[in-house]
Amino acid sequence: MKPENYVKNFRDVGESLFRIYGDELFPKGVLYRGGRLNSVFDHNEIFNVPTILNLRIGSDDKLFNCNYLHVPAEDKIENYDTSNGKIRKWVNKVISTICQDDIELPIFISLLKG
C-alpha cells in the first residue's frame, strides 16, 4: 500500500530531505506529513502510525487506535513567517507537544493541504 494513494501530498520527511540534500539529515520513517486523512479507512494505509498530530484548525475523526494530538494555529495567518512572535509561539507549542516522553514514533503530521 502506498500512503500517497490515500493522503494528499504524503511524504516521509527524512526521505524527502535525503532526496533534496543527498545526505541523511533526518532519519527516514520517523516523521510523515500530508493532508487530511478523510480518505484513509484502514490504519495500515498510513503505516499504522501510533501518533497523529493535526495542525489544522478542524479536528480529525478518530478512526484508529492511536494517539491523536491537535495543535492548531490560533488564526489563519501565514504560518511560515517565523519572524512573527505568534508563529514562533505556535511552533514552540508544536515542538514541545511532539517531544513529550509518552509520544510514540513515528508521527504523522496532518496539514491542510499536506
Produce a short descriptive summary.
With 114 residues, the protein is α/β, with parallel strands linked by helices.
Helix percent reads 10-25%
Uncertain runs with pLDDT below 50, 5 residues or more? none
Round the mean pLDDT to the nearest integer and report it. Answer: 90
Give the number of domains.
Answer: 1
**Based on DSSP secondary structure assignment, what is the total number of beta strands?**
5
Percentage beta strand: 15-25%
Overall spatial form: globular
Q: Order of strands across the widest beta sheet?
A: 1-2-5-3-4
Count, helices: 2
What are the secondary-structure elements, in order, as H or E? EHEEEHE
Distance from first to last alpha carbon:
19 Å
Radius of gyration: 14 Å
Explain this structure to me?
The radius of gyration is 14 Å and the shape is globular. It contains two helices and five strands. The protein has 114 residues and is an alpha/beta fold. It has one domain (3-110). The mean pLDDT is 90. It has helices at residues 13-21, 85-98, and strands spanning 11-12, 31-34, 51-54, 67-70, 107-110. The protein has a five-stranded mixed beta sheet with strand order 1-2-5-3-4.
